[in-house]
Protein backbone atom coordinates (compact mmCIF):
# COMPACT_ATOMS: atom_id res chain seq x y z
CA UNK A 1 0.00 0.00 0.00
CA UNK A 2 1.40 3.47 -0.86
CA UNK A 3 2.76 5.43 2.11
CA UNK A 4 0.31 8.33 1.78
CA UNK A 5 -2.68 6.00 1.68
CA UNK A 6 -1.37 4.11 4.72
CA UNK A 7 -0.88 7.40 6.57
CA UNK A 8 -4.46 8.49 5.84
CA UNK A 9 -5.77 5.10 6.96
CA UNK A 10 -3.82 5.37 10.23
CA UNK A 11 -5.15 8.86 10.91
CA UNK A 12 -8.71 7.75 10.18
CA UNK A 13 -8.29 4.74 12.49
CA UNK A 14 -7.08 6.94 15.35
CA UNK A 15 -9.95 9.39 14.89
CA UNK A 16 -12.48 6.56 14.76
CA UNK A 17 -11.24 5.16 18.08
CA UNK A 18 -10.59 8.35 20.03
CA UNK A 19 -13.31 10.99 20.54
CA UNK A 20 -10.62 13.37 21.84
CA UNK A 21 -9.01 13.52 18.36
CA UNK A 22 -10.11 16.82 16.80
CA UNK A 23 -8.12 16.93 13.55
CA UNK A 24 -5.76 14.89 11.40
CA UNK A 25 -3.01 17.42 12.12
CA UNK A 26 -3.42 16.98 15.87
CA UNK A 27 -3.33 13.19 15.53
CA UNK A 28 -0.30 13.35 13.21
CA UNK A 29 1.68 15.52 15.61
CA UNK A 30 0.56 14.35 19.04
CA UNK A 31 -0.28 10.60 18.99
CA UNK A 32 2.72 8.65 20.24
CA UNK A 33 1.01 5.35 19.39
CA UNK A 34 1.00 6.29 15.73
CA UNK A 35 4.60 7.50 15.89
CA UNK A 36 5.59 4.10 17.29
CA UNK A 37 3.67 2.25 14.56
CA UNK A 38 5.16 4.36 11.78
CA UNK A 39 8.66 3.76 13.10
CA UNK A 40 7.91 0.05 13.48
CA UNK A 41 7.09 -0.12 9.75
CA UNK A 42 10.52 1.28 8.94
CA UNK A 43 12.36 -0.96 11.40
CA UNK A 44 10.46 -4.06 10.25
CA UNK A 45 11.60 -3.45 6.66
CA UNK A 46 15.19 -3.09 7.89
CA UNK A 47 14.82 -6.26 10.00
CA UNK A 48 13.49 -8.32 7.08
CA UNK A 49 16.25 -6.96 4.82
CA UNK A 50 18.88 -8.18 7.29
CA UNK A 51 19.76 -4.77 8.80
CA UNK A 52 18.95 -6.04 12.27
CA UNK A 53 21.25 -3.90 14.44
CA UNK A 54 20.10 -0.59 12.88
CA UNK A 55 16.51 -1.80 13.20
CA UNK A 56 16.97 -2.54 16.91
CA UNK A 57 18.73 0.77 17.56
CA UNK A 58 15.98 2.79 15.88
CA UNK A 59 13.37 0.73 17.73
CA UNK A 60 15.01 1.49 21.08
CA UNK A 61 15.30 5.18 20.24
CA UNK A 62 11.58 5.22 19.46
CA UNK A 63 10.92 3.50 22.78
CA UNK A 64 12.78 6.34 24.50
CA UNK A 65 10.58 8.98 22.86
CA UNK A 66 7.19 7.21 22.90
CA UNK A 67 7.33 4.76 25.81
CA UNK A 68 6.22 2.04 23.37
CA UNK A 69 8.48 -0.89 22.51
CA UNK A 70 7.67 -2.75 19.31
CA UNK A 71 10.31 -5.29 18.29
CA UNK A 72 11.17 -4.96 14.57
CA UNK A 73 10.67 -8.71 14.12
CA UNK A 74 6.99 -8.57 15.12
CA UNK A 75 4.32 -8.88 12.44
CA UNK A 76 1.59 -6.22 12.57
CA UNK A 77 -1.44 -5.78 10.32
CA UNK A 78 -3.33 -2.73 9.04
CA UNK A 79 -5.37 -0.23 11.04
CA UNK A 80 -3.53 -1.07 14.26
CA UNK A 81 -4.16 1.48 17.01
CA UNK A 82 -2.47 1.98 20.38
CA UNK A 83 -4.50 4.30 22.61
CA UNK A 84 -2.39 6.40 25.02
CA UNK A 85 0.58 4.19 24.31
CA UNK A 86 2.87 4.39 27.28
CA UNK A 87 4.16 1.06 28.56
CA UNK A 88 3.15 -1.10 25.58
CA UNK A 89 5.60 -3.92 24.78
CA UNK A 90 5.28 -6.13 21.68
CA UNK A 91 7.77 -8.99 21.44
CA UNK A 92 9.79 -10.27 18.51
CA UNK A 93 7.57 -13.13 17.36
CA UNK A 94 4.19 -11.55 18.15
CA UNK A 95 1.65 -11.49 15.34
CA UNK A 96 -1.02 -8.78 15.37
CA UNK A 97 -3.84 -8.96 12.82
CA UNK A 98 -5.79 -6.17 11.14
CA UNK A 99 -7.99 -3.79 13.16
CA UNK A 100 -6.40 -4.66 16.50
CA UNK A 101 -6.47 -2.09 19.30
CA UNK A 102 -4.32 -1.97 22.44
CA UNK A 103 -4.62 0.34 25.41
CA UNK A 104 -1.64 1.52 27.45
CA UNK A 105 0.44 -0.88 29.50
CA UNK A 106 -0.25 -3.98 27.38
CA UNK A 107 2.47 -6.62 27.08
CA UNK A 108 2.57 -9.21 24.31
CA UNK A 109 5.32 -11.14 25.99
CA UNK A 110 7.41 -14.22 25.36
CA UNK A 111 7.32 -17.53 27.19
CA UNK A 112 9.59 -20.40 26.20
CA UNK A 113 11.67 -23.17 27.73
CA UNK A 114 15.35 -22.55 28.49
CA UNK A 115 17.68 -22.86 25.46
CA UNK A 116 14.93 -22.16 22.96
CA UNK A 117 16.63 -21.20 19.65
CA UNK A 118 16.44 -17.52 18.61
CA UNK A 119 13.49 -16.72 16.40
CA UNK A 120 11.31 -19.52 17.78
CA UNK A 121 7.67 -18.42 18.07
CA UNK A 122 7.21 -17.56 21.74
CA UNK A 123 4.92 -14.52 21.70
CA UNK A 124 1.13 -14.39 21.21
CA UNK A 125 -0.93 -14.05 18.07
CA UNK A 126 -3.87 -11.64 18.12
CA UNK A 127 -6.28 -12.36 15.29
CA UNK A 128 -8.13 -9.59 13.44
CA UNK A 129 -10.23 -7.19 15.50
CA UNK A 130 -8.93 -8.08 18.97
CA UNK A 131 -9.09 -5.36 21.64
CA UNK A 132 -6.79 -5.54 24.67
CA UNK A 133 -7.52 -3.49 27.79
CA UNK A 134 -5.04 -1.40 29.76
CA UNK A 135 -2.37 -3.32 31.63
CA UNK A 136 -3.24 -6.74 30.22
CA UNK A 137 -0.44 -9.26 29.79
CA UNK A 138 -0.71 -11.89 27.07
CA UNK A 139 2.15 -14.34 27.35
CA UNK A 140 3.52 -17.16 25.24
CA UNK A 141 2.73 -18.68 21.85
CA UNK A 142 -1.05 -18.57 22.23
CA UNK A 143 -3.84 -17.28 19.99
CA UNK A 144 -6.56 -14.81 20.95
CA UNK A 145 -9.31 -15.40 18.38
CA UNK A 146 -10.78 -12.77 16.08
CA UNK A 147 -12.96 -9.99 17.48
CA UNK A 148 -12.28 -10.95 21.08
CA UNK A 149 -11.79 -8.52 23.97
CA UNK A 150 -9.19 -8.94 26.72
CA UNK A 151 -10.08 -7.14 29.95
CA UNK A 152 -7.89 -4.61 31.70
CA UNK A 153 -5.09 -6.15 33.79
CA UNK A 154 -5.92 -9.69 32.65
CA UNK A 155 -3.07 -12.20 32.57
CA UNK A 156 -3.65 -14.50 29.61
CA UNK A 157 -1.57 -17.66 29.17
CA UNK A 158 -4.03 -19.86 27.25
CA UNK A 159 -5.60 -19.49 23.82
CA UNK A 160 -9.15 -18.20 23.42
CA UNK A 161 -11.55 -18.81 20.51
CA UNK A 162 -13.00 -16.04 18.35
CA UNK A 163 -15.56 -13.68 19.93
CA UNK A 164 -14.35 -14.31 23.49
CA UNK A 165 -14.26 -12.07 26.54
CA UNK A 166 -10.99 -12.88 28.36
CA UNK A 167 -10.80 -11.50 31.90
CA UNK A 168 -9.11 -12.06 35.25
CA UNK A 169 -5.87 -13.37 36.76
CA UNK A 170 -5.35 -16.00 35.53
CA UNK A 171 -7.72 -15.15 32.72
CA UNK A 172 -10.88 -17.11 32.04
CA UNK A 173 -12.77 -17.18 28.75
CA UNK A 174 -16.45 -16.23 28.35
CA UNK A 175 -18.61 -15.48 25.31
CA UNK A 176 -18.40 -11.83 24.23
CA UNK A 177 -21.69 -9.92 23.98
CA UNK A 178 -22.09 -7.35 21.21
CA UNK A 179 -22.59 -4.52 23.72
CA UNK A 180 -19.34 -5.40 25.53
CA UNK A 181 -17.53 -5.64 22.20
CA UNK A 182 -18.75 -2.15 21.18
CA UNK A 183 -17.75 -0.68 24.55
CA UNK A 184 -14.30 -2.28 24.44
CA UNK A 185 -13.46 -1.09 20.93
CA UNK A 186 -14.48 2.50 21.62
CA UNK A 187 -15.43 3.31 18.03
CA UNK A 188 -16.55 6.91 17.91
CA UNK A 189 -17.51 7.68 14.34
CA UNK A 190 -20.07 10.25 15.40
CA UNK A 191 -17.63 13.17 15.53
CA UNK A 192 -16.77 12.78 11.84
CA UNK A 193 -20.20 14.16 11.01
CA UNK A 194 -19.84 17.40 12.98
Automatic annotation (TrEMBL):
Keyword Lipid metabolism part of the UniProt annotation: no
GO terms (BP aspect): cysteine biosynthetic process from serine
Pathway: Amino-acid biosynthesis; L-cysteine biosynthesis; L-cysteine from L-serine: step 1/2
Catalytic activity, reaction form: L-serine + acetyl-CoA = O-acetyl-L-serine + CoA
Source species, domain of life: Bacteria
Keywords, sorted A to Z: Acyltransferase, Amino-acid biosynthesis, Cysteine biosynthesis, Cytoplasm, Repeat, Transferase
Protein family: Belongs to the transferase hexapeptide repeat family.
Entries under PANTHER family matching the protein: SERINE ACETYLTRANSFERASE
Identification of the protein by name: Serine acetyltransferase
Organism annotation: Agromyces protaetiae
Lineage, uppermost ranks: Bacteria, Bacillati, Actinomycetota, Actinomycetes, Micrococcales
Amino acid sequence: MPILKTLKEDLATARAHDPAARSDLEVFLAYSGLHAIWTYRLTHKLWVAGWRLPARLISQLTRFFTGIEIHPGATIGRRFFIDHGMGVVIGETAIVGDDVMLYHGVTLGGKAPRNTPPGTKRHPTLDDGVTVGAGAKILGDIVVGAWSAVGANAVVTKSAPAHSLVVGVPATVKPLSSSTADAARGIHDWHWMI
